Amino acid sequence: MSIQVIKDAIANKKMTCPQCKKPVQKYDKYAETIDAVRDGLGYTDIDSRGSRVTLTCGNAGCDWTERTEFWSQYIDD
Ligand SMILES: [Zn+2]
C-alpha cells in the first residue's frame, strides 16, 4: 500500500466517503508508519507497515474528514 494507491483511488473516484457516498475529493498529511525493531546484536530492522493519511470528502454539504491507517476500507474494488 502506498501513496500511489491513494492517488489513483481518488483520481478514479474509487475512494468513497462513508457519510455521503460520493467520491472523496482529496487527501493530506500522508505518512508511512515505520516500526524499527532492534535485536540483541544491535542490528536494526526497519519495517514499513502501512501509511496514514487524512482523507477529506470535499463534496458540497459534507464535512467528513478522517485521519486513518485503514483507508483501504474506503476504496471500492
Ligand atoms: Zn462526504
Order of helices and strands: HEEE
Any idea how many domains? 1
Instruction: Return Rg in Å.
Output: 15 Å
Query: How many strands, what sense, and barrel or not for the largest sheet?
Result: 3 strands, antiparallel
Name the strands of the widest sheet in spatial order.
1-2-3
> Any idea what the shape is?
elongated
- Structural class, by secondary structure, is mainly beta
Count of DSSP H/I helices = 1
Poorly predicted runs? none
Number of strands: 3
Compact summary:
The chain has 77 residues and is mainly beta.
Write up what this structure looks like.
It is elongated and about 55 Å long. It has one helix at residues 3-11, and strands at residues 26-38, 44-56, 65-68. The chain has one domain (3-74). 12% of the residues lie in helices and 39% in strands. It starts with a helix and ends in a 9-residue tail after the last strand. A hairpin with an 8-residue loop joins strand 2 (44-56) and strand 3 (65-68). It has a three-stranded antiparallel beta sheet with strand order 1-2-3, covered by helices on one side. The protein has 77 residues and is mainly beta. It is built from one helix and three strands; from the N terminus they run αβββ. Zinc ion is lined by residues 17, 19-20, 22, 57, 59, 62, 64.
